Amino acid sequence: MQNFSDTLGQVFRAMMANKLRTFLTMFGIAWGVGSLLVLVGLGEGFRSGQRRNLSTFGNDVVMMWNGTIPAVANQHTGMRPYQLTLRDEADLRGLPQFRAVTAMLIRGDLYAVSAYSNTSGQVMGVEPNYAEVRFVPMDEGRFIDANDVLEHRRVVVLGLKSAQLLFPGRPILGESININDISFRVIGKVGSISRGNNDSDNQKFYVPLTTMQELFAMKGENIARDAVSSIQYQPTLKGDTSEAAPAAHYVIARNHGFDASLKDAFEEWDTIQEEKTIGAIFNAMDVFLGGVGVVTLGLGAVGIINIMLVSVTERTREIGILKAIGATRSAILAQFFWEGIFLTGISGVIGVVLSGAFMFLLDHFFTGKVPGFDPPRLVPWSAALAIGSLTVCGIAAGLYPASKAAALDPIEALRKE
After folding, report:
1. pLDDT attached to residue 230
2. Rounded CA gap, 231 and 125, in Å?
3. pTM recorded for the entire structure
4. In whole angstroms, what is the distance from residue 60 CA to residue 238 CA?
């Protein structure tokens, strides 16, 4: 009776006796596996990059800005501007649809000077919970707190690039800067919040909202003293603005005397809806790239089936000789089964390794250079799908004709050309 080592020996001898055919079979399998993994990995890299970009704004954030009220719905003539106020913020905070609401006052026309350098950037009057609603990774010191706001303190938190420009290579905590000739004490520095080539967030200055309103209130005619540039909120229901958005629209419209159904009156950006839209786009991309990969995989499978069918047909005489010298049908089928397993298994591993190496090169050369792109990564399910499907194709393509040949009378098998 033939043991397992004898079977493996016959498998390797058969593979080495037909080197070109073995190489072509393995190449088709490796190409199909590698193509599917790279395509799916690229799609996941783009998805991950876009999610990472959105996360730098904060989680579950809806941003509202000052808007204009159209005289007639869907008409952009005769529009009346309005400014958001601290009253709007207070009214929103009192509603159960919101878990966090924060207001800010932003000026981009102020100038900052230190003992070493000078620069300009957005100066933002913020409240302590701004760091909870938005993404603010503190690098040194602390952020604005409740006492800073209550006591109208002249303190400032610097963005990463602002700190580097004003204090090149020097410590910043406790130092002073002048913003439009008014002295502020530096209490902290924010880490990097850049998104690709856009590093405007790294050039910001954060001061208490009350101090900002006292010293650098919004300019213009007929503007309320408590006017702010933006109100931003997080809905109570995570990932769902279906209740929060209508409630916010109702409050703003009521306070500023217009109909909440005038959608053009609201200037806002819903990062939750944006993430859902991006997710839908990348789901479609995954389907497309996965479809291309499956087609490539299918072409590889067809090639494997053809090669295995030809291989087994050419070896019908060999099967006849094996039967003539006493080989059983199960022993013959075991040889072709293990041959299929080795061909597809080794080739699949080669495909995974090569696709992993290619994705490593993409990671090395493109990470940080393409906004919104994360390095592609191996997705386990795609590797399992690719190797599994090609293995089934290879084994089936070998066993089917082998079983037919093994069922022949040895004399009939020997007569096959």
Report:
1. 95
2. 12
3. 0.68
4. 7
